[in-house]
């Protein structure tokens, strides 16, 4: 089975091509025939393609190839959906919401609008989402402001909206701030995700897709990260919270047969990107003539993924309700730090002032996503080269950010010390749709 590269619009359909000699799927058995395997016995949950009635049963097929190679890719669910997008005022959530509205779906957003970074950026994101909603059909978008951990609020939201599809992007993001304030990460990421899965199974949600992170690979010694790897050594509270979400997701799938997919994003960048992340910071600092810090000789390399590719992967996952899966979503190739800086210089049209500092302890020379599983089961592959992605991001920075938002980076992009406590967050929850932007 191969996928047409038609993007993640509802028209997407897998096509059979029996003449193809390089078929990636080696087993055409329906997913429901595939039993639990123990290929990843040290990584609970990553192996199960489909629930088995008999918990003691071994895999039907054993061999060196990873389980997903034996699985059948699901055809996408077509037609209209009402999707609950949590974190819909954030970078990724707002981008998914815009895509869903553009293709005709209905979207319910919930976001607490915390000040991890400047709230004006999130308000601007919501305005962009609202602009995507057709004026003659305003009911296709509802926005709520509130904490996903607020039980009363979220129960009322589910009762009022009855979403059948959940795209859970809300989280406290960022590695270093999680070391400063781990509790808020436990709250939003672990408790919040658990709460949403409780509601999702009670309200019969068809598919629960949530954002995990490449940071779960933090303690790994390898440089080409595959979902097969054991990720039992997270090196920050943020990474641990995402790994915990993956584990809890397996539990909800196991107990209630909730269809759950976790997506490990690799450094997402693009228009409206988070101001605490390197792609935004580099463009911002080079544009303003401020100094950049380069750790090491510039040869270290990372996998940067353009937002449109991530949105495409997320929507492909929403459309395919696998029983339980975890996928890497990355570009699948790395870019060195010095290449990164010179691409930014080219598109900004200004030379960077670079301060070279010694390698940071623990830095690894090359990290990159293995995206073959997402290709096999979702038909996902990134299409935007890094140079083109940075070009588009610089255009957005100059045409929209500088003109309409323009916040001083040094006070807004720290992501630390500005977080409201969850007690305060609870008090802003409101079951009334939030339209004050
Ligand atoms: N951007 C990346 O490079 C990247 C990489 C890996 C994983 N992720 C994950 O992707 C998801 C989206 O990331 P992003 O870059 O858009 O981050 P973001 O900070 O821009 O968006 C997250 C949104 O969630 C909201 N939120 C947080 N806690 C909440 C709560 N308790 N209740 C309601 N809303 C809450 C925030 O207000 C924010 O608007 C996150 O789960 C993040 O961990 C992102």
Quick description:
The protein has helices at 91-102, 119-132, 151-161, 176-180, 182-202, 237-256, 278-288, 307-319, 337-348, 372-378, 386-405, 409-412, 422-428; strands at 2-3, 14-15, 82-86, 106-111, 141-145, 165-168, 207-213, 224-225, 260-265, 268-269, 291-295, 301-302, 305-306, 324-329, 335-336, 353-357, 368-369. The protein has 437 residues and is of the alpha/beta class. Nicotinamide-adenine-dinucleotide binds at residues 87, 89-93, 110-114, 116, 122, 147-149, 169-173, 188, 192, 211, 213, 265, 267-268, 274.
Overall tally of structural domains:
1
Per CATH, which architecture? Answer: 3-Layer(aba) Sandwich
Biggest sheet: strands side by side, in what order? 5-4-3-6-7-9-14
Count of extended strands: 17
What's the overall average pLDDT, rounded? 81
Task: Write down the secondary-structure element order.
Answer: EEEHEHEHEHHEEHEEHEEEHEEHEEHHHH
Quaternary organisation: single chain
Regarding CATH, which class?
Alpha Beta
CATH topology: Rossmann fold
The hetero compounds bound to this protein are:
nicotinamide-adenine-dinucleotide
Categorize the overall geometry. Answer: globular
Count the helices. How many?
Answer: 13
How far apart, in Å, are the first and last alpha carbons?
46 Å
| Class from helix and strand fractions | alpha/beta
Instruction: Tell me about the largest β-sheet.
Output: 7 strands, parallel
Round the Cα radius of gyration to an integer and report it.
Answer: 21 Å
Keywords: NAD
InterPro entries: NAD(P)-bd_dom, NAD(P)-bd_dom_sf
Family: Belongs to the NAD(P)-dependent epimerase/dehydratase family.
Organism: Stephanodiscus triporus
